[in-house]
Each structure stands twice: as C-alpha cells, then as structure tokens.
Amino acid sequence: MKQPMTNARKQFYLNVWIFAILLLAVSLTVFWVSKPVSIHFVDVGQGDACLVRGGQGGTVLIDGGDVGEGKTLLSYFAKQNVRKLDAVILSHLHDDHISGVKELIQEGFPITELYLSPITDHQAEQELLALTKDAKISVTYLSAEETLNLGKVTYKVLWPYPKAEYMKENNQSMVLRLEYGKNRILLTGDVELSAQAELAMNMGEELKADVLKVPHHGGKTAVYPPFLTKVQPKIGIISVGVDNYHGHPHPDMLSALEETGCGILRTDLHGTVSVILHKDRLARIETNEKWRLLQ
C-alpha cells in the first residue's frame, strides 16, 4: 500500500516549488533589465519611421512613412514580433511622416497613445484625430522641455518652442533626444536651417548625441554646420528613398557630415538600420540591405 505523504515531505516539495518560482522571476527580471534597447530606422522609402524596442511599456514608433508604408511597417513588426505599440510620436503632420501611421490605425493595429506637437496642420490634425477617436487611441500634445519615460528610454522634447509657429512647417517638427544609460539619440524630423540655428544657439550641450537622425532626408538645408558642431554625432543616419525626385541626400549636406568625421548610413543604400544599445555603450549597428526589396 502506498504510504501517505508526510507533512515534512509536503513542506519540502512546497519549498522546491517556491524556490523554482522565485528563481524564474529573478531570471526574467535579469533578462528584461539586461536586454539591450534597439532603435530601428525602418526603410520606408522617401519618408521617416523609427521603431524603438525599449522593454516593457517601451515599444514606440516615431513617424510612419508615406502612403502605402503601413504594409511595410506591419511586415517589419511581424519580423520583430511587435504585436502592439505602447506609443506613437509624430514629429509633424506631413504625409511622408504620418500616412503609414494612419494606415496602421485603419488596419486596427493596437496603439495605446499618440503624441503630437502642439503646432500642427489643422486639416491633417482633424483627419488624424477622427481616426484616433474611432480607434479609442488616447492623444497627448507635447511641448518643448517635456519628458516622457517609456520603458527603459527617456524622451526629452527639445523643440518646437512657440516661435516655431511662425516658421515653415518643416521647422515646426518635434525634435526629440532619446536617452538610455550613457547613450543619446537625436531625432530631428524635417527641421531646416532656421530651426537648427535656434537650437544651436540655445540648446548647447543638450544637443550632443551619439547618433543623429539627419533632418529632412538629407536635403540641402538639412544640416547647419554650427548645429552639427553642437551635436558631435558618431553616426549620421539618413532616411531617404532610392532615386527620389528631390535629389536627396544633397552633396553639400553629405560633405558637411563627412567633415565632422561621423559615419554615414542611408536607408536607400543600407536598408533598415538598427542601433543596438547597452546601458553603458552603443553596442553595434546592424543593416539589412535586402529586407525591403523582398516585400
């Protein structure tokens, strides 16, 4: 006859289960804390889209490319096992930055929060707000000097200040500094010379960054040399379409970047560019030349 389990043995097995659960919890915590942050400058042709994988609560998309690029984003999200976005941040409301996001919303892709600049194009804003209302997406407006903490990444809004309201729309773009540990990434939307001059004059060390998303797809007015001097980037990333009719990136802009000594990566040449960050350093850069060509 099978002997009944003694209380001592029951307690032993209970202690083993408790230890196993605690060990699993600690292991998962260590994995989450130590897992690198990755920032993906997705190849969406002549447009901008940047996916941040920043841990729990930190899956964020900044801009979303032009018309038709929602499919590109959905395909890339599947590749990255991204099933929802904790936040979408739009630098400004030009089609080549917001159309892909509108398509994501129309497809019903889960988005928790949408962040906008307080200076927006009224008609584009109203169309976007109608979509977010139907999809029950919360909308928040961000002003200069505000800070967001999303997952392991801190987002500092550097621009626009109210004076940008009187500038052309590109210069109203939201400029963000992303921070993770010792790493700084500067995302600049489409700001041109006048906005860059204001930033260079007033921001100082605030602009310094390891990686610069080059403004306005590398156009002629994309880089103001005093602005570059303040940023001191190690890597400049240009989000630009193959053989685009704008002639981006412009040779003068490329020369200005080269004079800083920073490395230059371009989505038209290198495909999606991924920056992998450990807390104490920029770990590596990955490119995938063929990824978009296979879509």
Summed up:
With 295 residues, the protein is an alpha/beta fold. The protein has helices at residues 7-34, 69-80, 95-106, 122-135, 193-203, 225-231, 251-260, 267-270, and strands spanning 37-41, 50-53, 59-62, 87-89, 113-116, 138-141, 147-150, 153-159, 175-180, 183-187, 211-213, 235-238, 263-266, 272-278, 281-288.
Shape: globular
Arrangement of strands in the largest sheet = 6-5-4-3-2-1-14-15
In sequence order, what are the helices and strands, one letter per element?
HEEEHEHEHEEEEEHEHEHEHEE
**Could you give me the name of the CATH homologous superfamily?**
Ribonuclease Z/Hydroxyacylglutathione hydrolase-like
User: How can the largest sheet be summarized?
Assistant: 8 strands, mixed
Q: What is the count of helical runs?
A: 8
Count of distinct strands = 15
CATH architecture: 4-Layer Sandwich
Please compute the radius of gyration using only Cα atoms: 22 Å
The helix content, as a percent range, equals 25-40%
Distance between the termini: 66 Å
User: What is the CATH top level name?
Assistant: Alpha Beta
Kindly give the count of domains.
Answer: 1
Structural class: alpha/beta
Q: Low-confidence parts, pLDDT < 50 over ≥5 residues?
A: 26-32, 290-295
Could you name the key traits of this structure?
single chain; alpha/beta; Metallo-beta-lactamase, Chain A; 8-stranded mixed β-sheet; 7-stranded mixed β-sheet; globular; disordered C terminus
What report would you give on this structure?
With 295 residues, the chain is an alpha/beta fold. It has a single domain (37-294), classed as Metallo-beta-lactamase, Chain A (4-Layer Sandwich), CATH 3.60.15. 33% of the residues lie in helices and 24% in strands. It is built from eight helices and 15 strands. The protein has helices at residues 7-34, 69-80, 95-106, 122-135, 193-203, 225-231, 251-260, 267-270, and strands spanning 37-41, 50-53, 59-62, 87-89, 113-116, 138-141, 147-150, 153-159, 175-180, 183-187, 211-213, 235-238, 263-266, 272-278, 281-288. The strands form two sheets. Strands 6-5-4-3-2-1-14-15 form an eight-stranded mixed sheet, with helices on one face. The protein has a seven-stranded mixed sheet with strand order 7-8-9-10-11-12-13. Strand 2 and strand 3 (59-62) form a beta hairpin. The longest helix is centred in the N-terminal third of the chain and has 28 residues, at 7-34. The model is unreliable at 26-32 and 290-295 (pLDDT under 50).
